[in-house]
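agent> Task received from the user: take the single chain below, predict its 3D structure, and emit structure tokens. No templates, no multimer pairing.
agent> Plan: (1) validate residues, (2) run structure prediction, (3) serialize to tokens, (4) report one or two observations.
agent> Step 1 OK, no nonstandard residues flagged.
tool_call: predict_structure(input=
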Amino acid sequence: MSDFNKKLIMEDGTEYLGFGFGADREAVCEIVFNTSMVGYQEIISDPSYTDQAIVMSYPLIGNYGITDEDFESKMINLGALIVREINESPSNFRFTRTLSELLEDSEVPGIYGVDTRKLVRSIRDHGSRKVLITGIDTSLEEGLKKLADTELRRDQVKRCSSKKRWYARTSNPKYNVVAIDCGMKMNIVRELNAHGCNVTVVPYDTPAEEIMKMNPNGLFISNGPGDPEDVPEVIETLKALKGELPMFGICLGHQLIALSYGAKTYKLKFGHRGGNHPVKDLATGKIEITSQNHSYAVDDSTIEGTGLKVSHINLLDNTVEGLASEDGKVFSVQYHPESAPGPQDSTYLFDRFISNMEK
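)
tool_result: status=success, residues=359
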């Protein structure tokens, strides 16, 4: 085997050696890990990963290639991809290019051959933090200086959101939904269409008055990257529309609804990412296996008196996974009921949104 040509430098001075694939360039990112066994294409095309270096805990990535129909966004905004083993010869009749080719086209660096088990444990124990993906010749001293001198960006939603209004129509529609795009996955739009909704997707900074002029039956607030407090425009819009429309929020949308009602959010040590998180529905007692991708959570100690109540909790760490207003017109979940990749235990939440609009 040839010598290593790439490496990771962590803020604590640890280094991980490997081989490059994808784009041949340096990057400073926030490093996170994902525990999904499948769905790498949907993961890397999810705008919620903007600027993040994803460590895949599953050891073999790329084995079924990239398929044109399976993207969750037209843009690939992740910062980097870190895997144990990359497969450059996919076995899949649907594939049109390899994972490495997609990353190269999208100017995203990758590194393989890394001890991802050790790296995931490091993130679990010490939390998400900055990492430098660089060439093997970069000295530790030089790498640590680059990490110290690089400030991580906080404008991810602005870069991910649609730049203008667009439409996703369906046959025989029953409802018109306005979706605030904070970095929305396409499968959310597909689910709304499948439930009989015409969807008008609007940029994140669309004011409340403009939304009401569209005469929607309901308002959807999407997932997206970064700190919810960095998106005050959406928080103000939701405050103005409170009580006017049924609302449904997913992931970042869940956090933004909480902030608009007066609750607070905080950053998790290493976040939740993967398709295997157990969540309990407090109303029914049922356990859902959920798909998740977020760094922030709602502080349950700040919910009392806001007009919201906790509807779902995470059974791994008891964090808030769902909220509902006291009048039932507004609800949100921290996880992804549209999955892509699965599991598909939680699609009933789209039926709940439809029911609210019917009422």
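agent> Step 4: summary for the user.
The longest strand covers residues 265-281.
agent> Done.
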